[in-house]
Input
Amino acid sequence: MIEEALNVVGMRGEEVLEKYPHQLSGGQRQRIMVGAPSCSKPRLIVADEPVSMVDASLRAMILDIMLRLRDQHGISFLYITHDLSTAYQIGDRIFLLYQGAVAESGNAVEVIENPKHPYVQLLIHSIPVPDPTIKWGDDAVRSADDEQLRQQVHSGCRFYNRCPHHMDVCLTKLPPNYEVGPHNHLAACYLYEGNSIGAPSPDDVSPTPADAQILMENEIGQLYEKEPSHKHVAI
Output
């Protein structure tokens, strides 16, 4: 069973089974950590930054291993990352968070190629383009002081002070999800108020970050129950 798991991640038993962890390279340890859960034949693996601190070639290898575990073994991944490029490569559905609340979610390709929430738009725009003729980074970025941030946590949209489209309603309560595209593409922004797929929280009480986390977990759980295999969710 152990050698089979090693084979899945492109390693052989004789290479590592007689060694202590400190005798393995960083890349070998990373691959073993990705492959080890497959021994118990899980339906879901939570992968928190599995390709951080590795070079580009090893990153591509680990992502390929995860895709093979999905396709050949029916294992889903909850992929947590700050790297949008790898989320784009591996994710079927993506959730983008800002200060503990989901700003936008949907099909990974649809969200990244056609972002709707102002925060996600700025986030995508901040990625450098490998073309010296294209200007990058000229736009001023607004930031909030500590007192403004504290106020936003308790009422209203957390992105208010940096948003180029902010409105008075944004400070009253945390915006609900609005349908902004196909494949259940949702954005929590009052710019799309006419596209509401559901009412705000009961009694117009803004959800706390903990409430927003529960809502996200429930949506991921519902998605997984409907299609338990061949799904990668990126956060």
In short: The first helix runs from residue 2 to 8.
